Input
Amino acid sequence: MRYNAYMKSIEALISLGLNEKEAKAYLALLPLAKATAYTIAMRSGLKKPTAHVVLDNLVSKGFALKIPYKRKHCFMAKSPRECLSLIKEKIATAEEMLPELLAIQKTNEEKASVSYYEGLDGIKEMYSQLIKVMKNKPEEERSLVAFFAHQKDTPDFLQKYWLKSNEELKANKIKRKAITTFSKSIQKYLEEETMKKFNLEMKALSEKDYSSNISVEIYDNFTQIISHRYIQGILIENRDISNVMKQIFYLVWNSAEEK
Output
């Protein structure tokens, strides 16, 4: 067999599920009625111990038969037509299983993915993720809704980071609507000039009705929850959860609007 034809045959066999060594062994075995592993090693350029393993692999894959012969074992190649027929059967079986496999994949896609973050670096990572997701959206779709915490339990270093994150969110043209607590600790954020500066629209409820030191932000398929007191965060990726959280937000938002 000419070299170019030989290499094309190797490539064809690899496309049918064999590796290169198995393809070489099969081509060495194919013109022979039967042969020992030693013969195949000589004809294919494989080492003898490797040839034994490779030929056993061909048997397990349905490309060869193993035959007892004079206290040894010989190997016989199955015809290419028989091998192709076997592969077609496997493809047909896989196609029958496809709807079930797709159903499993869909189930896995719908499961909630939960990540835990801790410390200032963890909080920064959460906002990096938020910005990354939003940057991939058209500008008119870069918006999120949130329940913001008061700042009574927020350490100074975290308050400084909020100012920086507000600038980053604005720089990436991300708009926010938020429900928060009417508290002196966040009075500056409730000023119209500040809200305009940060692409922020907020409504404050009385502390009697709503008071929280935990922020909840909902965007795309994500819901992130951040504890100001303990500097910890949880990020949940699940469309159903984010959808219901958005519904809850707008129930509160619209109710506050009517007052």
Q: What stands out?
A: The longest strand covers residues 175-181. The CA atoms of residues 4 and 72 lie 35 Å apart. The two ends are 88 Å apart (CA to CA). The chain has nine helices and nine strands.
